[in-house]
Amino acid sequence: MLYAGFMSAALPPSFPMPPDAVGPSELLQLGTGAEEDEPCLRADAARNRARLLEAAGRLVAEHGAAALTMEAVAAEARVGKGTVFRRFGDRTGLLAALLDHSERKFQAALLSGPPPLGPGAPPVERLRAFGCALLRRSIDELDLQLAAEPSAERRHTAAPRRFLLGHLALLLREAVPDGDSGLLSHTLLAYLDAALIHHLTAQCGLPPERLRTGWLDLVARVTRTDPAV
Amino acid sequence: MLYAGFMSAALPPSFPMPPDAVGPSELLQLGTGAEEDEPCLRADAARNRARLLEAAGRLVAEHGAAALTMEAVAAEARVGKGTVFRRFGDRTGLLAALLDHSERKFQAALLSGPPPLGPGAPPVERLRAFGCALLRRSIDELDLQLAAEPSAERRHTAAPRRFLLGHLALLLREAVPDGDSGLLSHTLLAYLDAALIHHLTAQCGLPPERLRTGWLDLVARVTRTDPAV
DNA sequence: TTACGATCCGGACCGAGGTCCGTTTAATTT
DNA sequence: AAATTAAACGGACCTCGGTCCGGATCGTAA
């Protein structure tokens, strides 16, 4: 059980949680091994789910994630609009599902990949690697990450974020035992927020390299260690 | 000119910027003394603006900021819907205008209030006071702050946020001359984000006192100083 | 006071997210 | 194979944010 501190209280008793939304990511997040998608999904439902994701991917590739409308996805997939919502809950759920693949790859790299991202390296080094990797990933998928951002109330309860927070808190508890790892993990993750990255790079024109340096510096300060070479 | 580092590049050439939205806050942010509201506004326009703000305030007080609809505000103020949008640009503009009063009070306290919030105290002490004050204010107006949060693209370009960022960067440049004050200010301000506060207090049940302690600890780490007593 | 132009008003209109519910279809049981 | 049931389907429908433009109103100048 990772990060039992107070995040467990963050899981409200049976959160509505749209049908499957991101799917299995939250299983991974709970520590169980990866399952395939939806436990049991009727044949037609599974087929439509795939068609919807494929259609959405095409539309995003063509017009960008910001311009994606639910009706357009339904039409492109030759499916009723209701089906889209039943499957993915809402727009952000669909976008999140689109991000699910890279999400899971990243989670796997953290849990069982090679160091320093995966286990085996000292925690501060893993923290550094974590930020750099997440930075790269977010920059790659910026439009999707931005469009997929949930409303303010749900933002912090989304499964992928909870996983990253838990991972950070785990590393922080090791790296800085005298700190409030729960709160510090929020601070660190906030630096890697997609909207912030977008603002600093696209709107302010900062080169990604500077963000990377800033992350290393932040980790050094928070853990009260020497700046990385 | 405060925080000329790279934020100036964050102001795109003539950002659309709804009619008046927050109003004079951005003047303050540019360092000029406070003006009253809109430079010149036709009598009927000014009257309707006041009626709209009053109506919106009533509705928010009664049903909460999340339930506020633009049509309801228009109806309550006995005004056409178009008038609301012309005056405030969009929903978040109206909510921001509702927050403008406390915004300006806070800005004034920072610029010319008594220490340690205002000038006269050492920068680290002012940083501590800044967070504690902002924390208190945000907790007081949580529903409004949450409902007023702009979309991901605009979030970081909103005038009030730019002001707070600039102020933080100013203090940081003094308190930690060897750091990237621009980036660090984003990190610090992220800790005070309304959505995060809401998540930690309302959803995770953390007492505000713990957030306060967390802020003092964060300031200490970022500035590499000793934790405050 | 009247005339005129700029500004503002209002509400019809549109698009998109999200809901509802009668109908269809896949899995299971007999 | 037929019956049964739970789940999925689809698209009409609703709400609400946001736009548009013909008409009303204000400020000003003669």
Care to give the gist of this entry?
In chain A, 63% of the residues lie in helices and 0% in strands.
Our count of helices of chain A gives: 12
Count of individual domains of chain A: 1
Query: What would the average pLDDT of chain A be, to the nearest integer?
Result: 87
Which range best describes the helical content of chain A: under 10%, 10-25%, 25-40%, 40-55%, 55-70% or over 70%?
Answer: 55-70%
| Overall outline of chain A | elongated
Can you tell me the CATH architecture of chain A?
Answer: Orthogonal Bundle
Over all CA atoms, what is the radius of gyration of chain A? 18 Å
Low-confidence stretches of chain A: 1-36
- CATH C-level of chain A: Mainly Alpha
Write the CATH fold name of chain A: Tetracycline Repressor, domain 2
Strand content of chain A: under 5%
Q: Secondary-structure element order of chain A, as H and E?
A: HHHHHHHHHHHH
The counted number of beta strands of chain A is 0
Q: Determine the most extensive contact between two protein chains.
A: A-B, 40 and 40 residues
Note the quaternary state here. homodimer
Query: At the fourth CATH level, what is the homologous superfamily of chain A?
Result: Tetracycline Repressor, domain 2
The major pleated sheet of chain A works out as: none
What is the CA-CA span between the terminal residues of chain A?
34 Å
What class do helices, strands and sheet pairing of chain A give? mainly alpha
